[in-house]
Design a protein that fits this description.
- The chain is mainly alpha-helical and about 190 residues long.
- Helix 2 packs antiparallel against helix 3, helix 2 packs antiparallel against helix 5 and helix 4 runs antiparallel to helix 5.
- The radius of gyration is 19 Å and the shape is globular.
């Protein structure tokens, strides 16, 4: 049910972005040059935004790998790196509703990344659970060119379970690390 809701949200988000574009009247020849320059600027800004969204994902995956490796020190460092990437993300290219959602997601994700930057590994993993949901919600809005796997460990947090994103189909559990490295399953593919 939640997968269908997320898919519907993603479809609506994409269709809403396309629906917000206004048709411009055919420009005069010297206006064409200006418009094409503006388009290049918009494309460069969009490419820069995509790069910042991808940087957040890369920082997230590096943090996940540190938790998989039971590396508290590296996870602290990468939590702080992720917090900086999140703070650098500009939401202005998105619709008003998306901006509101992204601001909330980024604020929450930043707080969890900062906590990871100053915590022991058990506490880092607790924050990583919510951070993973935030990053998944962000990807639903921003999209990605990467093929991602949402994975789930039913044993984490007193059998409440915990999900995370991975670029690999093979399970490498960030919640248990070496204790239960392969505990989990792929819930769904994204892209």
């Amino acid at each position: 049910m939640s997968t269908m809701a997320l898919a519907a949200t993603m479809i609506l988000t994409v269709s809403c972005k396309d629906g917000n574009k206004e048709e411009a009247a055919a420009p005069m020849s010297n206006e064409m040059h200006q418009e094409s320059m503006d388009d290049k600027d918009d494309m460069a800004m969009s490419d820069n935004q995509d790069a910042k969204a991808e940087a957040i994902l890369n920082d997230y995956f590096n943090l996940k790998d540190a938790l998989v490796s039971d590396d508290n020190g590296k996870a602290k460092e990468l939590g702080n790196t992720l917090a900086k990437s999140l703070k650098a993300f500009d939401v202005s290219n998105y619709s008003d509703n998306e901006q509101t959602e992204l601001k909330d997601i980024i604020e929450d994700a930043t707080e969890h990344a900062e906590h990871i930057g100053e915590s022991d590994i058990k506490h880092q993993r607790e924050h990583f659970k919510t951070l993973s949901k935030d990053v998944t919600d962000m990807v639903a809005i921003t999209g990605t060119d990467k093929k991602l796997y949402e994975q789930f460990c039913p044993m984490y947090n007193n059998n409440e379970g915990g999900a995370w994103l991975s670029m690999n189909e093979e399970i490498r559990n960030p919640y248990f690390g070496s204790q239960m490295l392969k505990c989990g399953k792929v819930q769904r593919e994204i892209n």
